[in-house]
Amino acid sequence: MKNDVVPVQVRGILPANNGVAIFIGNAEKVFVIQVETSMGRVISNFLRKTPNERPLTHDLIGSIFKGFGINLERVVISELRNATYFARLILKEENELGVKLVEIDARPSDCIALAVARARPIFVASSLFDQVEDMTEILDQLNQTGSPGKFGDEAE
Asked: Is the CB of residue 20 less than 8 Å from the CB of residue 32?
């Protein structure tokens, strides 16, 4: 599996016309996944370790995992089909019967939020990473200009 995926991380989050642009990548390449504004805020809050007044859905999922002894091993952004990204949660359960790995189809935004919240690795399928457009230069330009509208940094 190691040769089939590329490790990545969230490199930036910025408001976009129809939601939020999540910049995902590594030193080699960065690409963008568009998410809903509310998901962008959730991911931004998890990145900044900002506590929520009440548990959000992703907190609830984490509590359910913990209650059943399930660990989020990693997430894999697996493919792009009809302008829609697909992803998988890789879960691991260990008990007296042994170890069980389960893959669950999920939205990339949910996968990213869960991975960031639990400091778990994010991967992209190599074939997908090869096909996405490199947005590194755009992210670098936005970071250099201080991009007034960085998501999550607005005045409170």
From this structure: no
